[in-house]
Design goal:
CATH class of the largest domain: Mainly Beta
Shape: globular
Strand content: over 45%
Oligomer: single chain
Helix content: 10-25%
Radius of gyration: 21 Å
Number of strands: 11
CATH superfamily of the largest domain: Calycin beta-barrel core domain
Order of helices and strands: HEEEEEEEEEEE
Largest sheet: 10 strands, antiparallel, barrel
Distance between the termini: 68 Å
Number of helices: 1
Length: about 170
């Protein structure tokens, strides 16, 4: 009899709590300020190099019914295309990016909003010649553009190579 009461009470609590939580918009994680920190990157973009040459397009969208931002990159200078999924992890208060491209390359990054810029960094990667980190910073520029800077850092955090610098300009219709 005691087991039946405990099971019934537990079932009622789980059902009641789940229903209340799922219908209370103030408790939906995707609506908190932290989940909106990377919204400055959302848009349809032309991406230029530092000499103002168009190097690609990027469509960055907030996924409906998910706490995810999806990037869809297409290079104008090569056959490279890729997608990233970006999400805020409330368990450690970090932004995470998983990049996958049409060459089979995968890059996993983790980071935070620092000031008004998003800084994402990989775990230490052991290469043939040296160990390094990938670090990508998204600068939220005051003119509405976004600058993406991809750098390689040695194991001591010293920058030794710039891989990519792209200036995102919104495509207006």
């Amino acid at each position: 009899m005691n087991k039946a009461i405990i099971v019934l009470a537990s079932t009622f609590f789980v059902f009641f709590y789940t229903e209340t939580y799922s219908q209370d918009k103030s408790k939906v994680a995707c609506t908190t300020v932290a989940y909106k920190q990377f919204d400055f990157w959302i848009g349809i973009w032309n991406v230029y190099d530092v000499k103002s040459k168009l190097i690609g397009t990027n469509t960055v969208v907030k996924m409906p019914n998910a706490c995810t931002i999806q990037e869809n990159w297409s290079s104008k200078t090569s056959t490279n295309k890729g997608t990233s999924y970006n999400y805020y992890d409330v368990t450690d208060n970090t932004w995470n990016q998983l990049w996958i491209d049409n060459a089979g390359s995968i890059l996993k990054l983790k980071g935070k909003l620092i000031g008004k810029n998003m800084v994402l960094k990989s775990d230490l990667i052991t290469g043939k010649k040296k160990s390094f980190y990938n670090q990508i910073t998204f600068f939220n520029n005051s003119d509405g553009t976004v600058t993406q800077l991809w750098e390689l850092l040695d194991k001591d955090g010293i920058i030794f190579n710039e891989i990519f610098r792209g200036i995102y300009k919104r495509i207006t219709k």
